[in-house]
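Explain this record to help learners:
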Amino acid sequence: MHFEFQSTDKHFTVTRFNGMIKVLAMGTLFILFSGCNRSEEQKIPPYVQNLENLIVLSSVEGPGNAIHFIREMEFGSSDEQMIGKLGSFSVDKANNVYLGDIQQHSIYIFDQYGHYTASLGRQGRGPGEFNFVGHLKNIDDHLFAYDPPQFRLNVFSSKNYELAASVNLHATNKRDFEELREFDLGFLHPINKTRFLGLFSPPVIYADPSHPKYNLNDLSNSIYLLDNKGAIISDKILEYPDLRALTATVNGEYRHTQFEFLGRTLISVSNSSEIYVTRTEDFLIQVFNSEGQYERAYFYPLPKREFTREQAIKEQKKVYENDYVLEYRLSVINNAPEEQIPQFWPAIKDILIDDENRLWISTIVEDFDVYEWWVIENTGELITKFEWPRNEPIEVVKNGYIYTRETDEETGLQQVVRYKIEFDEVN
């Protein structure tokens, strides 16, 4: 099967600003920027201009590039190995695919031709075992597999599939950081073999407005660097707001729940160990080095779609199958006060960094069946744009391929599909 997507008939120039004012606190910056409206979409707000090493993309008429995707291979359940429920997946340098099974607590390995070759781990609490197969990432010749309930990182060799290390990540020196004493390590993102981003979150949400510590929408997550022994090795390098929630009273019952359309923080790490951070409300991406020091930012005043409760309800129905959960979430959307409802949908859905350090950014457009993906050099030049179905999300870009998560129409099972990428310059 062959897919061809023609990029738009525009290319983008790059403007650089070297502001003298240091980067604002993350939370403050994103709260201020989220106030932009359509009349301001072609303006660069002063607080964005003042970011050092700011790369501003601006659209001008001109040729673009065509991008083609050739469907090559599927990875998933077969006669040799049945996968219970597909979780995170990763790809190594040889195009072997590692599929996490969150139901059977194992990782299944398929070669580049789609053949099942081996499995890693099982349910348990010992080294190399899992209570939950979380985020997977291949770095050099190792697979890093995070087990959140056990605060453990299992590291496997991608050469012989043996367990190379099992790292306890309880942040052994957390008590040395007063601001973290009541926080929990909620997420871990490998930067390289010896350094990790640790996301620490407040342990308690006081959701009752009558509670003296009510803090439903006043929570911030903090990021610190950890070494491969689980020790925190930096001061706080980033702080950003947690997912926000809507609240409503339904038939006399107070209800609340968090929604991605209220904005969330995305974090991605490149092969060169740079950390990319954005709030989805706006097309503003900040880049930090592996020490957590700010380096540069990308900005584009992307026009955003007006938010409606009706469309939000349609989107929830696509995601949630449990009747009670769906009814609860829809009731909150329907009954939340108008002042809590956002004016616009977020600008960005996801950001990926490929192995050539190019940015792949999915943006929200008028058609809710697709995302518009932007492919950008790390210097800021736009390579191309294309549309891709929302129900087949792109999750990995590596070795000249994209890897998507798709659902088999006949079996209803999820699988990973590999597409070869081809760029053609348009004259």
The chain has one domain: 2-307+342-425. The longest strand covers residues 414-425. The radius of gyration is 22 Å. The chain is about 10% helix and 45% strand.
